[in-house]
Amino acid sequence: MTCVRSFSFGFLLALLVVFCATVLLPAHPAYADTVSELQAQIAEHNKQIQAIQADIAAYQKQLDTLGSQKQTLQSTIKTIDVSRSQTAAQISATKKKINASNIKLRELALEIDAKQQEINVDQETLARSIREIAHTEENTMVEELFGAESLGDAWVAVDRQTALNGALREHAALLASAKIQLSTQHTSVSSTKTDLTSLNSNLTTQKQALDANRQAKDALLTQTKSKESEYQSLIAKKKAQAKVFEDQLSQLQSQLTSVNSSSIPKTGSGILAWPFASSLMQSCASRNSIFGNAFCVTQYFGNTAFAAAGAYKGAGHNGIDVGIPVGTPIQASLSGTIMGTGNTDLVSGCYSFGKWVAIKHANGLATVYAHLSSIKVSTGQTVSTGDVIGFSGMTGYATGPHLHYGVYAVGTPEAPGIQIMTLSSFKGTRTACANATMPVAPTNAYLNPISYL
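The structure corresponding to this sequence follows.
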């Protein structure tokens, strides 16, 4: 009877409260069902995204097959159409990812609300237990030990205090764990919102790419009057006039003062980023057997076989060409300032860069992106690495969809490298491109892009 009396009402009440809070807290069946439903929706969206990704890969195989065939108006139009279908599929996949992200945010909101309620209950339970003990237990542990009628009663007092302290510590640990979980869920919300912003940006870019693709097709059909004979005549004309222009440009650039070699930035891997999304670079790596390289490069810098055949009048290719579908988003390789933009096609009979963008970087390099279908930046604008500056196409001297990518030395004020000039600025200029504005540079200012990528 003495042992039973030694358990005060306050102790029993406090222990009961803690036990109920840690073991018998009610479940949330409605919450669990809702979260389960949301997770099922996310799983279904991911399944649909995988199916769309398979379609995108199938379109890429079609593009690879078309690229190996003889170039005709029909094959070129087919290439543009397949590229458009691929972009449309990418838009569909992005929309699914956006939907899945929004559902994820709803799931996290439910989890956070439930966890916050759990923490509130835990905190109140812990506080109530401590208050009950403070109000009902007047004696300290030492007082109870010395006031016990027997050694057995003393040990009972020690055991009950140890049990209560253990329960309180366990409850405090559970409360701390719940707060950590809540913090993790808030971090997940922030991360998901960041992903959502990126996906929405991608969606806008993909829709612009689709528009660029349509414009390229319309322009080609207008130029060729939808006739194969007109298309072949256009290709032949481009090749002939481009050879004449390259010879004239080489002579004009020989008038420029050579760049001081000490002002040319040192080479190194990763100084510049490839001007495409990482997903495209991964696709190129998987198609190594088609291009003979992991970068979709169709022509390298310098005296390539194509250059040796007379395409550039022996001057060598002043950049690299990358085979990519019409409408591919083109990204800045490094942060910098837009030196200039232009469209040499606006000058009748001038077959050169077509639509181009030039960016000056702070490290002494400049990059040029040519044969674009559309341009999204303007002169003087500041861009960051990875910003979309335009979309790939086949304008200017381009007989098929690709990007011409050039790297130049900026030089010094006394001996400048790349300059944006109207070719008529050169004394005695006689060329169909005399009234065209484009990037020009002394021969030694042209740098091998591969040396900086």
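The two ends are 87 Å apart (CA to CA).
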